[in-house]
Amino acid sequence: MSDTSNIFDLPTDPAGGGNNIKISATENIPSSSQNHLQQGHVTLDQTTINQIVSGLQQASVTGATQLPSRDIPQNTNNITQDPQIQPNYIPPPKQEQMDYINNAEQPEDMINNYNMNSLRNSSLDEMYNEIQTPLLLGSLFFLFQLPFFKKFLFLYFPVLFSSDGNLNINGFVFNSVLFGLIFYMCNKITMHFNTF
Questions:
Q1: What residue intervals traverse the membrane (predicted)?
Q2: Is residue 53 one of the residues assigned to a domain?
Q3: Does any domain span residue 2?
Q4: How many domains does the chain have?
Q5: DSSP 92
């Protein structure tokens, strides 16, 4: 327990100061007059400058200032003939993208696709038209055979029935004409709505 602190040894009042450590930092900004002195202190006299210039001239005469031959490129054609270094360089298109106009859908293809779609739609319309009439006839026949329809006729048109409760010849003619009229009206209504 020697490497831990006792909670009562910690400062309790940080606002009051207590035994807290205070750090004060001051920034030393150099004045502009000191900068001028330091810059003026690096002045070289004429003899030093002459020694430096003569040393550089001797080094250039002996070849010490030249690059080693291994660092000088021998063939610069790839640099001077590279088209990518031109300022307005546009890279050539890739081979598979070369003919993008002919790769687009041609008018003949569009016409063929339209004709195939219209043929498919017309075949579906024909199938619907073929199924429509038998379906309508079957549903009407079913409705005319239901008991509630016969009761309706017997209740409102008793003349159509004989004394035993079956349809007489007038009842069969009336049923046939009514069946034909309802079929004709339903067929006209469906034809009218098929035009939309």
A1: 135-157, 169-186
A2: no
A3: no
A4: 1
A5: P
Q: How far is CA 134 from the centre of its chain?
A: 49
pLDDT in tens, 141-180: 999 999 999 999 999 999 999 999 899 999 999 999 999 9
Cβ count near 78 (within 10 Å): 8
For 46-69, how does the pLDDT look when each residue is reduced to its tens digit (9 = 90+)?
998 999 999 888 888 887 787 777
Distance from C-alpha of 98 to C-alpha of 92, rounded to nearest angstrom: 9
Residue 15: the pLDDT is 57
Determine the Cα–Cα distance for residues 136 and 125; give it in Å rounded to an integer.
Answer: 16
Q: Where are the alpha helices (DSSP H) in 41-106?
A: 46-62, 77-80, 100-103
137, 184 Cβ separation under 8 angstroms: no
Q: Print the domain residue range for 138.
A: 114-194
Q: For the chain, how are helix, strand and coil distributed in percent, rounded to 5?
A: 65, 0, 35
Beta-bridge partners for 167: 161
- Would you say 11 and 20 are in contact if contact means Cβ atoms under 8 Å apart? yes
| Residue 144 maps to a domain | yes
Predicted model pTM: 0.40
